[in-house]
Structure formats: C-alpha cells, structure tokens
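### Sample
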Amino acid sequence: MTNKNNRIKVTTACQNCQTRKVKCSGEIPCRYCSKTGKKCAPGKPGKKRGPPPGREVKSRNSHSRMESLYNNKDPQVQEELRNFKNTNSGYHNDKNMTKKNKRLKVTTACQNCQTRKIKCSGEIPCRHCIKTDKKCAPGKPGKKRGPPPGQEVKRNVETRRENGEFSSNSSYNYITKLSD
C-alpha cells in the first residue's frame, strides 16, 4: 500500500480506465493495462471547470460599477439607491424570470412519448414527434390515486357504526376480518 504523500496525482486517466470509470495509477502502462495486457493510451482530457470565458471579467466589471454607485455622494444617486433597496425589484423576482426559465409542467405525455417512455416537452406537436416526423396525439391520462382497495369500505363501515346505523357488530366484524 502506498503512502498518501507518495501517490501520483493523475489529471487524466488512460482510455481503458476512463471506460471502466476507475482510478488510473498514472504510470505508463498503468496497473490495470499491464495486468490485463491491454494497450495503455492516454485518455481524453476532462472538461475545464469554472466560469465560461469572459464571464468572470464581466462580473468583476459589474461589481466595480455597483461599488462606485454605492460610494457616490450625489444626493440623487443616494435617493435612487434607497428606493432600490426598499422595493422588491431584485434579481430573483419572479416577474424578472423569462418564459424560457420557467419549466412547463407536463401532466400527460403524448402517445409516442408514453410508448417510448421518454420525457415529453408538452407542446403539441412535441419536440420528439417533430424530430421523428410522427403524428403527435395526446396520451392516456395517468392512474388516479386514492386509498388502497378496501380502506374506503372500512372507513365507511366505521363511520356508519359510530352513527348507529348497524344493529349488531357481527357485520362490522365480518368486514373488518375481510379487509385485514
């Protein structure tokens, strides 16, 4: 077993380790490839993380602009800032959300999407039907949910018994035994 400090930091796994989705030892050939006798070839580099190009600069510029407005001693600017703070017109207001940001809730998928068991976009015709050049027809509605079978009957019997509708407990006991 290797010491944690002696380990090689592997930035990109070989193709075989990438395919298997396991940690690569980083040597050439790596332990897995040398053990199995496979050709050890460097894998594709992963996606770079961080903000998209130009995004970081843009946020710094807007931050410095806001800071300069905040530090401005002009009475008119100060009044505008006070008004801005007192209103609900922040960036996260629902009114500022575009239709693109709001996701359309699809209650029932079209027939084609139901049979293929894929996500339906909800429009008529849906994106999948347009792409595959098929006729888009509304699908069957989903199953209605309710109490499990027998529970509703049991509840009704108990309510009727409490109201004195049964003359004896024998029928209540019979129904209770059936539902248990």
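Confidence is low (pLDDT under 50) at residues 88-94. This sample (Zn(2)-C6 fungal-type domain-containing protein) is used throughout the tutorial notebook.
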